[in-house]
Amino acid sequence: MAEPENHTLRLLREIRDSVATTDRKVDAWGSSTDALVAKTEGLAAKTEALADVIDAVDGKIDRVHADLKDRLDHVARALAGEIVQSRYASVGMEEKIAEIERRLTALEQAR
Question: What's CA 108's distance to the chain center, in Å?
Fold first, then answer.
C-alpha cells in the first residue's frame, strides 16, 4: 500500500493539473465570449443602420404614394369634368338634331 503522504501529493498534483486545465478552458471561453460580444455589438450597429435605411425608404414610399394619389385624383376630377361637359354638349346636339328633324319634317309636309 502506498504511503498516505505520497498519495496526498499525487492528489494535489492532479487537482493542480485539473485547476490549470479548467483555467485554460475558462480563458478560452472568455476570449470566445469577448469575440461573440464584439460580433453582437457589430450586428447591433448594422441593424440600427439598416433600420435607418428602411425608415428612409418607407418615408420615400409614403411620399410617392401620396404624389400618385394626388395625380390620380386630379385625373379623376378632369375625367369627371369632361364627362359632364360631353353630356351637356350631347344634350345641346340632341336639341339641335331634334330642331333639324322638325324643320325637315315641316319642309317635307310643305311640299
Answer: 74
pTM equals: 0.45
State how far the Cα of 22 lies from the Cα of 16, in Å rounded to an integer.
10
Longest dimension (CA), the chain: 154
Q: Could you give the C-alpha distances from 32 to 18, 26, 27, 28, 29, in angstroms and in order? A: 21, 10, 9, 6, 5
Say which amino acid occupies 98. Answer: A
Q: What radius of gyration do the chain's Cα atoms show?
A: 47
Residues of the chain by 3-state class (helix, strand, coil), percent to 5: 95, 0, 5
pLDDT of 28-85, one tens digit each? 777 778 778 888 888 999 999 999 999 999 999 999 999 999 999 998 888 887 777 7
**Distance of alpha carbon 52 from alpha carbon 46, whole angstroms:** 10
**Which residue bears the cell 350631347?**
90
